[in-house]
């Protein structure tokens, strides 16, 4: 009798699960074997309590379709759990799905502290850490229908558009954060897509997560009639049959032909807008030159031109008080713009005040670029501009304080580089890639940074990277892919061959700089100061030599003391070499780089031998810049900066002052 009493609940749960699994199809699950707990332990009791609370909440909460809870226990026994139902399912379907997921997850993931279960209609998860504080892109779970679609190329184009549209809809519709739609692929077939994020993400974080999910969905397998990718923070799915409800909020219906027509019209409007803005900016540059010649003070010109950003203006006295009147004791460093000082505002917030030096080669244009541009950019991997001050001949930018300083300060210092273990270096590479992807694709503006390097990567208290220094950045129009300049500005060793030689720049120029940065992070060696002791052809030649000799593992920074994953080092080296390919077409885009860094299942193209024009400068001439409009060009050997002057201007308006 006691045995029957013990088995009865299990038998009932088994039959209930079997009876409903036909309508709640299990999609995928993940159980982490790295952390486990013992049966009948305190953690086990807390887990059961959390799972029971989630089941109860799923039945009691009528509209939200999501809940997060915790055991509120000590850190060693704390359990955090959540469920999320697909945005279109009813309360009853949601409760039923969560109830069955609660039973199934403990059967599949026995005694593991981190577990995920994705059903078609809901997701259930638990962990021993609070997972609501960040976007999670691992683990990646994927599944595909093995049947192939006809007209695969056309189908993938339609799929790319529909998944992108569903993802954008999801990011725009809090708190449920889901979007879906369909497109007629042919007379017989209709494509249906669905995307959703966990509701504790911001709009930007949701978009970042779905970008990763859709990139994986489109690349892991092509030409399948159905597929899905699940990340802990979001998911995306497509089928050639309707798998979601038709009356849900946020639904998107459109035909491919209509979308193409709308897209063409939008491009036309964007082009017209770009031309208008270009002429306005050109006129502003002429006004600026006239006012400068007429004796109007530079700070008056700047104040007039950025007058629309009143909320970001700081009183100079406030900054002086915060920095102890720019005391040397508070000086953090000095760059091309001028010295940077640490300060503390009256509310206790720490700041970094970048003060334009009188002797700086930079001026109004770079200052305006940085204020007007960075103020509009919000991303966890970009340094945040708090404000500016233009007063009493002082020109100051006020940023958030980033306590660990610049990446180069740690990476290239033999005594400090040990603080950058492999996991930190990998995190930096991924974070910088995400920041660049945001600039290139996901921000309201398409931004080309043009000066990506280790000294322009700042590290916060948790060693998260933040891209800084946008004085040389350029904005591209929606349909613009490349631009040219007669004034080569930037830093020796990071510039792509097409930019250094011909003045052509694009998103692929930033990709090249990122590739150099990756190889520096892996090796711990600075490209622009590479010694002939390592390789007579510079860092790129050094890495390529080991790659071609199949001795890739030997290039890792010795300070790492073999405490790293050899496969990860080789993979990052592989990606870095792809980024520094001579031909821009052979370099990946940043969304591909992010995907390759986050998914080990992606096949990476084989790189070709790069041109080693960044060789050791010892006893070698500075590179020439073959441009008929360029009057002079030189390399400043003291700080590895390229500066150049010209009587011409680029694209009809003045370039920022060379650095």
Automatic annotation (TrEMBL):
Origin: domain of life: Eukaryota
Sequence ranges assigned to domain Gnk2-homologous in this UniProt record: 25-131, 137-243
Record membrane topology: Single-pass membrane protein
Record domain Protein kinase: where: 326-612
GO cellular component: membrane
Bias-annotated ranges (Polar residues): 625-650
Signal sequence segment: 1-22
Reaction(s) catalysed (UniProt annotation): L-seryl-[protein] + ATP = O-phospho-L-seryl-[protein] + ADP + H(+); L-threonyl-[protein] + ATP = O-phospho-L-threonyl-[protein] + ADP + H(+)
UniProt-recorded Gene Ontology molecular function terms: ATP binding; protein serine/threonine kinase activity
Transmembrane segments: 258-281
Protein known as: Cysteine-rich receptor-like protein kinase 25
Organism: Eucalyptus globulus (Tasmanian blue gum)
């Amino acid at each position: 009798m006691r045995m029957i009493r013990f088995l009865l609940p299990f038998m009932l749960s088994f039959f209930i699960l079997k009876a409903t699994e036909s309508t709640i199809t299990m999609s995928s699950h993940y159980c982490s074997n790295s952390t486990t707990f013992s049966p009948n332990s305190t953690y086990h009791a807390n887990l059961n309590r959390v799972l029971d609370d989630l089941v109860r909440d799923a039945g009691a909460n009528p509209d939200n379709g999501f809940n997060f809870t915790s055991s509120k226990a000590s850190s060693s026994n704390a359990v955090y759990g959540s469920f999320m139902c697909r945005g279109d399912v009813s309360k009853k379907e949601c409760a039923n799905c969560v109830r069955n997921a609660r039973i199934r997850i403990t059967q599949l993931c026995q005694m593991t502290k981190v577990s995920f279960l994705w059903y078609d209609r809901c997701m259930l998860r638990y962990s021993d850490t609070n997972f609501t504080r960040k976007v999670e892109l691992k683990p990646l779970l994927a599944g595909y229908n093995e049947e192939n679609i006809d007209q695969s190329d056309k189908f993938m184009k339609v799929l790319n558009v529909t998944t992108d549209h569903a993802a954008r809809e999801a990011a725009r519709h809090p708190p449920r954060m889901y979007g879906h739609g369909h497109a007629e692929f042919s007379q017989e077939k209709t494509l249906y897509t669905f995307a959703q994020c966990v509701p504790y993400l911001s709009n930007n974080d949701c978009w970042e997560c779905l970008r990763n999910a859709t990139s994986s969905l489109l690349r892991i397998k092509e030409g399948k009639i159905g597929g899905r990718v699940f990340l802990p923070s979001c998911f995306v799915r497509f089928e050639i049959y309707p798998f979601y409800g038709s009356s849900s909020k946020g639904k998107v219906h459109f035909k491919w032909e209509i979308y193409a027509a709308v897209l063409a019209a939008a491009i036309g409007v964007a082009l017209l807008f770009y031309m208008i803005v270009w002429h306005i900016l050109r006129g502003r540059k002429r006004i600026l030159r006239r006012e400068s010649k007429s004796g109007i003070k530079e700070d008056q010109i700047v104040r007039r031109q950025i007058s629309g950003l009143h909320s970001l203006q700081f009183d100079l006295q406030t900054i002086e008080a915060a920095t102890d009147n720019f005391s040397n004791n508070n000086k953090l460093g000095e760059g091309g713009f001028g010295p940077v000082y640490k300060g503390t505002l009256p509310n206790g917030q720490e700041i970094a005040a970048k003060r334009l030096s009188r002797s700086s080669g930079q001026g109004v244009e770079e200052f305006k670029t940085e204020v007007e541009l960075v103020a509009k950019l919000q991303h966890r991997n970009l340094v945040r501009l708090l404000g500016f001050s233009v007063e009493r001949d002082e020109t100051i930018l006020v940023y958030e304080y980033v306590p660990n300083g610049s990446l180069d300060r740690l990476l290239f210092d033999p005594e400090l580089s040990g603080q950058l273990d492999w996991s930190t270096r990998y995190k930096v590479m991924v974070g910088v890639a995400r920041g660049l992807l945001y600039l290139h694709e996901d921000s309201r503006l398409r931004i080309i940074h043009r000066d990506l390097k280790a000294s322009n990567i700042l590290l916060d208290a948790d060693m998260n990277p933040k891209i800084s220094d946008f004085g040389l950045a350029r904005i591209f129009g929606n349909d613009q892919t490349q631009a040219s300049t007669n004034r080569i500005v930037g830093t020796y060793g990071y510039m792509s061959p097409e930019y250094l030689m011909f003045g052509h720049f694009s998103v692929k120029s930033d990709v090249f700089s990122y590739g150099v940065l990756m190889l520096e992070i892996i090796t711990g060696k600075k490209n622009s100061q590479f010694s002939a002791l390592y390789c007579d052809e510079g860092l790129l030649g050094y890495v390529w030599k080991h790659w071609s000799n199949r001795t890739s593992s030997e290039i890792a920074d010795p300070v790492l003391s073999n405490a790293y994953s050899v496969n990860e080092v080789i993979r990052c080296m592989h990606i870095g070499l792809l980024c520094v390919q001579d031909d821009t077409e052979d370099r990946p885009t940043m969304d591909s780089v992010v995907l390759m860094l986050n998914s080990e299942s992606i096949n990476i193209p084989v790189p070709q031998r790069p041109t080693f024009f960044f060789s050791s400068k010892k006893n070698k001439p500075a590179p020439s810049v073959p441009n008929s409009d360029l009057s002079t060009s030189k390399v400043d050997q003291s700080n590895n900066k390229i500066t150049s002057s010209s009587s011409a201007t680029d694209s009809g308006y003045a370039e920022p002052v060379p650095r």
